[in-house]
């Protein structure tokens, strides 16, 4: 029989949910990068032919997932016609199809499909954020724009009880390493990013590198389904048994 939560636990859970909602609302209201806000809105007005009947989100995309997440997936930025259309991280494009399928297989998502805000998808023990919350032209935010967005990145990590980070691509990996250095968790050389790379951040925290599930990587076979599954299986093991070494 499932254990009932004590009233103290219920209060803590409810406080955590409120703090998560407040952070997400602040992110959605952010207007620090005029170039990106304008770009998101322009895409929302012009749209892609396949989505002409849809109302695009067209602005900063909030974090998605469990406010008690021990796994945090860190991507680059919302896709122009994916998250910038649907308003949910990695939702509505092929990158998301790959990511949520892998999260589902590893037991972090209740379903593999992610099509829109009303599709019933929930994450359990995992959350997704981006180094940049607004869709950038050519998928390339400037250094200043990533710097602007660090406030949301920092607040996200401070709020969640994260044990394992999965950095998608060079930018996701670097965002976590920079944060870890700022916090004094890690003081070594800049570790080289590669798929499957593991970095011990101390206190049972780990960073795992993964190629980004962009079409550039999945269409060319640089990233296969098995390779992505391995990353999330490893994350699952570490979340369940943080004392276990990666190797
Ligand atoms: S990229 Fe980040 S900091 Fe810049 S406007 Fe969007 S949410 Fe704000």
Explain what this protein looks like in three dimensions:
This protein has a single domain (about 20-240), classed as Uracil-DNA glycosylase-like domain (Uracil-DNA Glycosylase, subunit E). It has helices at about 5-30, 35-45, 85, 95-105, 145-160, 170-185, 215-220, 225-240, and strands at about 65, 70-75, 125-130, 165-170, 200, 205-210. α1 (about 5-30) runs antiparallel to α5 (about 145-160) and α4 (about 95-105) crosses α8. The mean pLDDT is about 95. Helices cover about 40% and strands about 10% of the residues. It is built from eight helices and six strands; from the N terminus they run ααββααβαβαββαα. Strands 1-3-2-4-6-5 form a six-stranded mixed β-sheet, sandwiched between helices. It is α/β, with parallel strands linked by helices and about 250 residues long. Iron/sulfur cluster (SF4) binds near residues 33, 133, 134, 149 and 152. Iron/sulfur cluster binds near residues 27 and 145.
Number of domains: 1
Task: Spell out which ligands are present.
Answer: iron/sulfur cluster
Q: What does the oligomeric state look like here? A: single chain
DSSP strand tally:
6
User: How much of the residues is beta strand, in percent?
Assistant: 5-15%
Helices and strands, in order, run as HHEEHHEHEHEEHH
Principal-axis shape equals: globular
CA-atom Rg in angstroms: 17 Å
Determine the CATH superfamily.
Uracil-DNA glycosylase-like domain
How would you classify the helix and strand content by structural class?
Answer: alpha/beta
Q: Percent range for helical residues?
A: 40-55%
So what's the CATH class?
Answer: Alpha Beta
Overall mean pLDDT score? 95
| Number of helical segments with 4 or more residues | 8
Distance between the termini: 35 Å
Low-confidence runs: none
The CATH architecture comes to: 3-Layer(aba) Sandwich
CATH topology: Uracil-DNA Glycosylase, subunit E
* Main sheet: strands, sense, barrel: 6 strands, mixed
Strand order of the largest sheet: 1-3-2-4-6-5
